[in-house]
Write a structure and sequence with these properties.
about 5% helix; globular; mainly beta; 1 helix
């Protein structure tokens, strides 16, 4: 049966960000609903943000589209054009190659959640708008580095 028993799925916390940057994701959790259903062409995750938490560092993707649908609460989308309040039922899209770095922040006093769907590509490069950081992703995982491709010093991560 294609119905997914969401409460039975594992909840992932933390992030793949290097060093101290990982701690910035405290209060964020996700459930990989697409993986649970055997989806392979795109990823689909339910992300929950506690008050004060953020979805990610502000970023954009070269090759992968993203779409999000607000499920509950009130979250603030922050991108290059400023701040936009999102509430239940709102939809936001982030086309591949659009260098408008984005993320969501929970500025409310209650949990907020959204479904995010994104393209799965064999490789990807993402750029972080507020940091001298980029990430290359391939079958071996994540490789975080400075925007010029040089290694990130340990004090930066």
């Amino acid at each position: 049966m294609p119905k997914i028993d969401i409460p039975s799925l594992p909840v992932k916390t933390g992030s793949a960000y290097p060093g101290k940057l990982s701690a910035l994701m405290e209060g964020r959790s996700q459930i990989a609903v697409g993986n649970a259903g055997g989806i392979t062409q795109f990823g689909a995750n339910i992300v929950k943000l506690a008050p004060g938490a953020m979805s990610s560092l502000r970023h954009w993707h070269e090759e992968q589209d993203e779409l999000l649908v607000m499920l509950s609460g009130e979250l603030t989308l922050i991108d290059d054009s400023g701040e936009t309040t999102l509430t239940t039922g709102d939809v936001a899209t982030f086309p591949a190659g659009d260098a408008n770095g984005h993320h969501l922040v929970n500025k409310s006093d209650a949990e907020g959640s959204f479904l995010v769907v994104g393209t799965r590509t064999p490789t990807e490069t993402a750029w972080y708008s507020d940091l001298d950081m980029m990430v290359k992703v391939d079958e071996n995982g994540f490789d975080f580095m400075r925007k010029d491709g040089s290694p990130m010093p340990s004090e930066d991560s």
